[in-house]
Structure formats: structure tokens, C-alpha cells
Fold NAD-dependent epimerase/dehydratase domain-containing protein.
Amino acid sequence: MDRNLLITGAAGYIGGSILADFITRTTGPFSRANISAAVRSEAQVESLANLGINVVLVDLSDEASVTEVVLRNEIDIVLHTASSHDPNVASYLIKALGQRRKATGNETFFVHTSGSTAFAPEAGWPSGEMKDTDPIFETEKQLAANHPIRLTDIQVIEEGKTQGVTTLIVVAPAVYGRGTGQCKNMSIAFPIFIRSSIKDKLVHQFDKNGNPAAVHISDMTALYGLLVEKILQEEAIPNGEKGYYFAVAHKVYCWDLMQGFAERLHLLGLVAEPKTRTWPSDEMAAESLGVPPFIARVMGTHSTELVPVNAYEVGWRPHWNEKMLLESLGQEIQDVLEVDNIKVAS
């Protein structure tokens, strides 16, 4: 049976890379999938128009528009990469899938992209190792405390139960590497630090060495591919309250990352020293990075002890590791220079 798949955020970094990967899969389970891409501007429609897929312009904050798109295009599976922190958008999409399920009698699926910063001790999460097979949902409900990512995860699972929609939550850590989408190809995790360093002519680090989780964009898209393959093949996989998938390939020490940026930026003449300095205060860091002080500190110091079990049980085998990440920092810098049109003297 053919299934109709909608990717939200299809012009973004993660969503665009997933889309680029999926449209190359012309055999096997994906041969039975009809792909639609949701975007938010006419310019994005034009950018994706040559891919041979159904591109839909939709305001995801408008429930009526979301419902119309899902029902008119007979969507059975939604991969939601557009927002990890808006419960309303997730709810609108799941409600529409619920209507689709009632109309056809067929199972519908909502695969949500969450974020690992909600699972850091600095954000109130319990310290210590946690597997994606542990009672994550119960812990999120206890600690929601107006944290938008946790509140959205809770909404996804509870609305899925109400509507009879099968839900899965992919928890994304720091994602890096050159994307393959039509619009945004640059990683989200590291450019903030690179741009701040170029602006300040110095690379700074915090007084605490964080150890966050990370994953290369190609490994991230591979996990989504595996999950959708299982869905298309009608295989039973963990879902609902047990359907968390930690997309953690490896971890990285923040001080090693910043030192790597310092050495490479100095070779390019973009910073004054091939070594890091410590931020004098969180407020100065926040001003340079362009985020609130609390967010700046979490970005630069948080550690997560997230262990992927469900992800591996569906067959995920990430290729990239910390060593490969540190060796690729030059490309992360080049991507920023290219996008920002910064010329470097040869």
C-alpha cells in the first residue's frame, strides 16, 4: 500500500537534508512513499520546485491550513522538523492525522524532532546516565516546568493517544556537518560560536568544560530513514511513551571544540591568538553570542548522558565520531565564511 509522507521544515537544515536523502531512495520500501514537503514562503516553494515532489506552502501556526494540507494531500506520515518547542503546531498536525486515520481506517504516524538541551542537568534534568528505553515521558511530565521542548514532547504523546496517532520522538543533539538540502546547508550548532569569535577576534570558552552529545547530519538523516522504512514495512517499533529515539552518535568536549576553532581561525587570520580565552562573565558571552545569559551558559557548558538503545535496535549505526568531528572543524568554518561572504587573504 502506498503511503503519503509530509516533511515539515523541508527548506531547513535537518528537514532539507532528510528530504534530499529520501528522494534518492527509489527502490525498496521508499518506492511506495509519495513525498510532500511543507515550506513557509514562496521563495522556498521555488527552491524545491525542481525536485519532482509535491511542495506545499502552509502556515503551521494556522490549524485550519494544517488540517486542509494533511487531508487534501492524504498524508499518512508526518516528519516534523520545523519546530521542537511549539506544542500547538505539533497538536494541529496530530489532530489532522487523527482525522485522516478516522477517514481511512489506516494507521497514521507522527515523527517529532525534539532537542537534547531539554535533557541537560543545566536545564533541570536529573544528572546521570539515561537510556531512551527509560521512563522518559514520566520524567518529562514531572519536570516540564514551562520548558518549551519538554512541553511539546508531552503534547505530542498525549495528543497522539487522544487522536489514535502513532508517535515517535527523535531527540536531536548538536547536529553538525554540511547539509544536503536545497536551501539551508549549514549546521546550526557551531556557527554561533564561529561568528562570535570572528567578531571578537578571539575564541572564548566558559569556565566549565561541557560534554554535550553530537551527531553528523548524515547519521541523523540515516536514523530518520530507518524509522520511515520500518513504518512503510509495517514493522512494530517502540512508539508513544516508549517511542523516544536518542540520536546520539558521540559526545564532544567543548574546550576541545573551542581550541580547534581557535587554531583554524588563527591560521586564516580571523582571530588574534591560536588559543582560547575564558569568558569574563556569562553576560559578556551572551552579548557576543546574541542569546540570553542562561542560554549562552547552557550552550557552552552543558553535558548530557543520553544513551541510544531504541535507535540501535532499529538498526542505526552512526559513522561519525568525535575524532572525525574535530578534524572537520575547518569545513564548519568555511561554511560560515561562504554564507557570510567573508573573504580571507591567501
User: Anything to note?
Assistant: The longest strand covers residues 33-39. Residues 175 and 280 are 28 Å apart (CA to CA).
